Every structure is written in structure tokens, then in C-alpha cells.
Amino acid sequence: MKVRLLHPNRDYELNEKLAPQHEDTVSDLALETLFATMAAGDTRVHQIARDVMLASLDEVATIEYRQRALQDCLAQPLVVTELYELAVGVREAERHIFGSMWRSPTSIVHRSVQVLELFIDALKRVSALRQQAAARFESEAFVNLFATLANELDDEFFAEVDLHLKRLHFRSGVLVSAVLGPGNRGERVVLRAPRERRWRERLALAERSSYSFVIPPRDEAGARALDDIRNLGIGDAADALEQSCEHMRSFFRQLRDELGFYVGAINLHQALTTRGAPICFPQARPADETTLAFSDLHDVALCLTTDAPVVGNDLEATGKRLVVITGANQGGKSTFLRSVGIAQLMGQCGMFVSARSLTTDVRDAVRTHFRREEDATMQSGKLDEELARMSKTIDAMTARSILLCNESFASTNELEGSEIARQIVYALLQAGVKVLYVTHMYDLAQRLHEDASLDAVFLRAPRATNGEARFQLRDGAPQPTSHGEDIYEQIFGETP
Q1: How confident is residue 372, by pLDDT bands cut at 50, 70 and 90?
Q2: Residue 397 half-sphere exposure toward CB, CA atoms < 13 A
Q3: Residue-wise pLDDT tens digits, 262-306
Q4: What's the average model confidence in pLDDT over 148-172?
Q5: Which residues contact 112 (CB under 8 A, 6 or more apart)?
Q6: What is the pLDDT of residue 488?
Q7: pLDDT at 346
Q8: Which of 17, 269, 412, 419 lies deepest, with the highest CB count within 10 Å?
Q9: CA distance 196 to 181
Q10: Residue 11's closest CA among 108, 206, 141, 130?
Q11: Structure confidence at residue 487 (pLDDT)
């Protein structure tokens, strides 16, 4: 049975090892805050949320497929959570079914029957839950899953499986047939369905067959020979049972993992709505339709870590691949950049975003290059570290990626830093990459602003008014100051 709640035509495969560039993205965008909220203490959900969010989808149809499935989940959170907990529970329960240290067909059959009985009981509960809730789901993902369950898990299936499992306990012994081969050795040993014994036979009133015999209790060689015949007879059954166990185990593992993402999204949705953050499902566009437009976009990481009201921002950058953000210190530039990166990742994994509206073209990866604090363990200068990290970041990108730069190359003097940054920006734009750049380097921002061929968007963070920053960015040309005196006054008092 196929789950296919995350992809319309294939199962989800967990990627437990991510490239180093992903670790930079997690750190720069404070994504661990999101993952922890989604997980709510469940380490499996944490791993799945991390993997799914960082593996950006680049197909609009698949993004919309997940959006519809998530809308079902948000409408029916209790059903989805119960299905997830059922899948988790059966996988945990299997861990407590122990087998023999010595693998033999007999021990394999014994454990496999126990495991199958556990799985069948869980499937019955899944089927019952489907019957109760299927009519309330509308998305293609859940409609197809429930239709598959209805077709595969009918009463006839459960009755037949229950009969086979009952027989496989071999309470009446093992019935096998064989023929004599060379040297009177048994060949073509075949397991047979047990014959129902009549009541006279059960009471030992009927005469025994003249061909029957009983092995004496002390005949160890005879017992071993009989055990060999038994293992030969049930060998094929043991293989078939192991395959059946793995098939059902795979189903519950897949159901657990794919539902785990939606359970995490439910947890995040609840956390954001509790804090009053706006929620919407973004509109995804193909990568060749260069688009980035939103209203009242919030930084989700900030929403989850502060009780103070979070200010949202607007942007209209349709048809533009460069957004340059300048302005006052502590004016919300880094928060704005982080909000865009998080929204791009959330939107491209099929989730909602924290905004009134958002439209963006799909990108195959979100890469970041944020300023790092001084590291005493570095073997070279800070500029060397920035250049090396930028080189690795660009190597991991394609023409369909998006790069978020926060104060990149500010570690050297403004003239050198601006020239390095300008050449990198031009090269990336020429390759097709979308770039959002936060900078205090006036020389860089002004030279980009003067180049009319770039057709870029320039935003400026406002200066604090009456001692309070508004944090809402506005369209505006770069200014030769970042108003550092405002920070000086906050720390040392008024400027003499």
C-alpha cells in the first residue's frame, strides 16, 4: 500500500544527512526555533520537519498538492494526530516482540506471526478510523490514501488473514508431505493446510492409521530428524511471513514519517495563531516567472520567541531578481531578510507562511551568507573566511537558487568590500540567481542603485522616531549614513 501524502507519485524518502550549506541556512535563519516548535518534543517529527523544509520543492503542482493536504490536516487535526500516534505506537510495540537468538524457520515463523497479529490489529484500527473520517477529507492526497485502504482492507481480507494466522500457530502440529529420494531421504517437503480433525479423533476414539508412529522421548536423533523435516516444511512459509512483515512495517513507517510532517505543521500553526500572527497559503509560480510580492510578512522565528508585537513588511518585486536593503542600524533589516528566507522555505515545502498574502517563484534552494562573529579558532583572517564560505555556497547553487546576504564582506574596508560584493552580485544575477542583500556599505548600494540596467528594488530601514524603531522597511534610495549616532545615544546618552 502506498501512502503518498507528500508526493502525488512517489513515497517520501528521509535524507538524514544534509550538505554543510544547509547547516549555514539553519543557523542564519534561526530555523531550529521552527523545528523545535513543530516537534513539540517528538524527535522524529523534528527530523522529518527539518528534512522536508530544507528539501525545497521546485514543482508548483507538488507544492499545491501538499497545501491541499495540509488544509485537510488543519481542518481535522485530531484525526491526523490519531493516525500518526497509531503508526508510531505499532512501530514501538514491535520492538518489544523478541525472537530467538538462533534463527531457524520455526523461530522466524513464531515471531513473524506475533508481529503480523500486531500489524493486523493496527490495520483494523486504521480501517475503522478511515470509515469514520474519510468523508471529511477533500484533498487528493488523503482521498487517494483512504480509497486505497478501503480497497485493500475489507472484511474479506481481515477474515482470510485471521484464518491464516490462526493456522500458523500450529496448535495441531505441522502437516507436511514429502517423497522418498535416493537413499530413502525425504525430498520435495511441502507444508500442507491442516486437516480438520473429527470429534472422534480428538477424543482418541478412532483407530490410528497403521502408518503412524511415535518417537520415543529419549530418541534425540529421531527428534532432530523430525525437527529438520519440520524446518524444511515451513521454510517457504517463514520467508513469506518475513516479507509480509516487512511490507506492513514499511507501510507504517511511511505513514508515520509522512504524517509526521503534517503533525509538525499543525503544531506550528497552533503556536502562530495563538500569538496572533497572520497566516496564509502562498501562491507558487514557476521559476521563470520572477516574482516576489507579499504583504504583512512576519519573521516566524521572531514570532515564536517574543511576546512583543512583531511588525510585518510589504514588498513588490515582481520581475526583479535583486533586492538591496539599507538604512538605520537596528531598523529591522536582518529580521526582514530572515522573514523572506523562512517564508521561501515554508512555502516551497507546501506549508503556510506568516503573512497576509505572498506570491513567489519556486527556487531549487535557499542559500545564505550572513556575517559571522569573530572566531578565535580561525586559522586565517575574517575576509578569507567569508570568501571561502561564499565560494562553497556558490558551488552548491544553481541558476534557480536564491541567495540571502547579510552584511557580507563588511569585515574589510568599504572600498574593497564593496567591489568584491558588487562583482559577486553581478555574476549571480547574470547566471539567473535571485539575490537579497542587506548592507551598510554605501559605496556598494549606491553603485548598484545608479545602474538602471539592474532594475532592482531598494528598501531602506527607517531611523528611530522618538527613541522607538518602527521596523517597517520602505522603498528608498541608499543614504550615506546608517545613523550610528542613534545607537551611541542609546548606550552613552545624548551626543555632546
Answers
A1: confident
A2: 26
A3: 999 999 999 999 999 999 999 999 988 999 999 999 999 999 999
A4: 76
A5: 238, 241, 242, 244, 245
A6: 42
A7: 97
A8: 269
A9: 29
A10: 141
A11: 46
Please state, in angstroms and rounded to a whole number, the distance separating the CA atoms of residues 416 and 422: 10
CA–CA gap between residue 446 and residue 130 (Å, rounded): 61
* Amino acid in the structure at residue 237: A
Residue 282: closest CA among 388, 384, 353, 367: 353
CB atoms within 10 A of CB 149: 18
Contact 365, 56 (CB under 8 A): yes
Nearest to 436 by CA among 486, 378, 345, 366: 366
DSSP string, 25-81: HHHHTTHHHHHHHHHTT-HHHHHHHHHHHHS----HHHHHHHHHHHHHHHHSHHHHH
Grid coordinates of 377: 579558532
107: pLDDT confidence band, cut at 50, 70 and 90? Answer: confident
The amino acid at residue 238 is A
**Three cell numbers at 396?**
552548491
Counting every residue written for the chain, the total comes to 496
Q: How confident is the model at residue 178 (pLDDT cuts 50, 70, 90)?
A: low
Q: Map residue 15 onto helix, strand or coil.
A: coil
Q: What is the pLDDT of residue 78?
A: 96
| Spatial separation of the C-alpha atoms in residues 169 and 189, rounded to whole Å | 19
For the packed helices 20-28 and 31-39, what is the interaxial angle rounded to 10 degrees?
90
Cell digits for 431? 547566471
- What distance, in Å, lies between the first and last C-alpha atoms of the chain? 75
Query: Where would I find the beta strands (DSSP E) of 137-180?
Result: 176-180
Cell triple for residue 441?
A: 556599505
Question: Is pLDDT above 60 for 475?
Answer: yes
Cα 129 from Cα 150, distance rounded (Å):
11
pLDDT at 95: 80
CB contact at 8 A, 348 and 363: yes
Eight-class DSSP state of 328: S
d(CA 193, CA 170): 10
Residues 6+ away with beta carbon under 8 Å from 8: 61, 62, 65, 140, 141
Sheet holding 283-285, edge to edge: 283-285, 357-361, 292-297, 313-316
Residue 189: how many CB atoms within 10 A of its CB? Answer: 18
Band of the pLDDT at 236, cuts 50, 70, 90? low
Average pLDDT, the chain: 84
Read off the pLDDT band of 490 (50, 70, 90): low
